[in-house]
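Sat 14:20. Reprocessing the chain from the morning session after the first attempt stalled halfway. Input below, unchanged.
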Amino acid sequence: MKPQVIATSCAYVALAGSAWTLDLISPAARPAADQQPLVLLLVVVLALLAGSPLKHLTPPLAWRPIASGLLLFGLPSLLLPVSARGLPVFTRVALLALIPAMVVLLTTVRDRSDSDLLRLLGPALAGLGGALLLLPADPLLLLEHPSAAVAMAAAILSLAVGSYTAHAASKALPIRAALVLTLAPSFALIALTSHLTHTPIFAPALRDLPVLLWGAAEISLLVYLLGILPPIVVSARYLLIPLLTSIEGLALFRPSVSPRMLLGGALLLVASAALILRGSRQPESPRSLLS
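Finished this time. C-alpha cells:
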C-alpha cells in the first residue's frame, strides 16, 4: 500500500478504536450513537459546501454508492439499536467480527477471483474467535432474545454486503461525490424513520461538538478507504478496532489480564495481518483526499 493510504488507514483505526474516550473527554455530550444522523448530515453539508460534487454524474454511476451507503450506514443505524435491547455492547462488537469472513466468501464466490483468497476464511474465522475470547461477550444471549438476534443478524448481513459492494460502487467517484451519495440517503432514511416513529433527532448542543467532529472525521476517512482499498482489507477494521479499544482500556484501567484475553488479542492481531497483507495484493484504486 502507498504511504498515504497506510497513514489514512492508521488514522481511521485510531479514531474508531479510540472513540470510547469521548465519554471521558466530553462526559456531558450525548452518546455517539444518538448523534449518528447529525454526523452524516454534517459530512454531507461540508462536502456540498466544498464544491459541486455531483456535477457530471450519470444515474448508473449514482445508484450503486447510494445502495451501498444504505447497507453500510442507514440500515445498521436502525437495526443495531434494536439488537441493543437484548445484547450488551461487547457481545454486539464481538459478533461484528463475523463480517470479514462473510466478505471473504462474497469476494471469492461472487467475483470468482483467485481461489487462494478463500484461504483467508480460516484467519477471518480465527479473528471472530479472537474477539469472542478477548471481549466479555455472551453469544448465548442470542437464544434468549430472538428479536435482538434477528436484528443483529440483519445488521451483520447488511454491513457485510455493504462492505463488499462499496469499493466497486465508489472507486470511480471523487471523494466529495462519494460522501454525498453514500451518506445523504442514509440520513434521509434515518430522518424518515425518526419522523414515523416519533423519535426526534436532537438538535446539536455545544457540548456535542467533540463527538460530531470526531464522528465526521471517522466516517469521511472510512468512505475514502472504501473507494481505494479492496473489501477484504477494509473489513479487517472489525478486528482491529476492538483490539485497539481493548489495548487502550487495559492501559488506562489496568485490570487483570487472563491467558484467554492474551490468546484472543493474538488471534485478532494475526487475523488482521493476514487479511491486510493478502488482501492488499489486489490493486488499489487511485483517489485523492481532496478530489
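The first helix runs from residue 3 to 17.
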